[in-house]
Design brief:
The complex is a heterodimer of chains A (127) and B (110). Chain A has 127 residues and is mostly beta strands. Chain A is built from no helices and eleven strands. In chain A, strands 2, 4, 5, 6, 9, 10 and 11 form a seven-stranded mixed sheet that branches. Chain A has a four-stranded antiparallel sheet with strand order 1-3-8-7, with no helix packed on it. Helix content of chain B is 4%, strand content 45%. The chains are: A mainly beta (127), B mainly beta (110). The A-B interface holds A 37, 39, 41, 46-49, 51-52, 60-63, 96, 98, 100, 102, 107-115, 117-120 and B 1, 30-32, 34, 36, 38, 43-46, 49-50, 55, 85, 87, 89-91, 93, 95-104.
Chain lengths: 127, 110
């Protein structure tokens, strides 16, 4: 059974860096079939994809967040992580990690979906 | 949002509803669409992959379709438990490639 377990502080001070980690079990994080993604949902708003990372370190990011986002992966620890710098109140919400099946075809990448999710971490940005 | 959904839809138990999702050639038109169900306090759930493929465990009451740069999710035989927010999502190959979500549609079962 594939499980994603999130960890990290639920409160971050404004202008500081949000750091979250997702531990993967039940499947190899080095699998060539999956990317490992981060998604957030701000209060009263919709879902927002933050970015993802492949086992070899290749990343794709949301263009609107790319300047502040760093994702990393540690295959030996079966973990991947998110750092979001210079947070503001607008960055508060529930953050999820997820498994994303993203396959490269001749014409580009095809997303088969985020099929396994972490439990979510509620992040509050304090002043 | 890059993908456009109606803010809300509603239907009575037993009825059929559909939710639309409009995009462009850089996303839905080329790469297809996935659909997610979001309930308060729980992680979103993938309910439709690659336009019309139901993941294991998703009831056949849920169906998906795509035409050109638009897609639809249909739910037949509405149940009270179907009341949730539904999001379409697609890969977009502009700006190095990234995933985009629609703004979400709130389904109310009357």
């Amino acid at each position: 059974q594939v499980q994603l377990q999130q960890s990290g502080p639920g409160r971050v001070k404004s202008s500081e860096t949000l750091s979250l980690t997702c531990s993967v079990s039940g499947v190899s994080i080095s699998s060539t079939s999956y990317y490992w993604a981060w998604v957030r949902q701000s209060p009263g708003k919709g879902l927002e994809w933050i970015g993802n990372i492949y086992y070899n370190g290749i990343t794709f990011n949301n263009p609107s967040l790319e300047s502040r986002v760093t994702t990393s992966i540690d295959t030996s620890k079966h973990q991947f992580s998110l750092n979001l710098t210079s947070v503001t109140a607008a960055d508060g919400g529930v953050y999820y990690c997820a498994r994303q099946t993203l396959i490269k075809y001749s014409y580009g990448y095809v997303d088969f979906g985020l099929d396994v999710w972490g439990q979510g971490t509620t992040v509050t940005v304090s002043s | 949002s890059v993908l456009t959904q109606p803010p809300s839809v509603s239907g009575a138990p037993g009825q059929r509803i559909s939710i639309s999702c409009s995009g462009g050639t850089s996303n839905i038109g080329t790469f297809g669409v996935n659909w997610y169900q979001s309930l308060p306090g729980t992680a979103p759930k993938l309910i439709m992959s690659r336009n019309n493929q139901r993941p294991s465990g998703v009831p056949a009451r849920f169906s998906g379709s795509k035409s050109g740069t638009s897609a639809s999710l249909a739910i037949s035989g509405l149940l009270p438990d179907d009341e949730a927010d539904y999001y379409c999502a697609a890969w977009d190959d502009t700006v190095k490639g990234h995933m985009v979500f629609g703004g979400g549609t709130t389904l109310t079962v009357l």
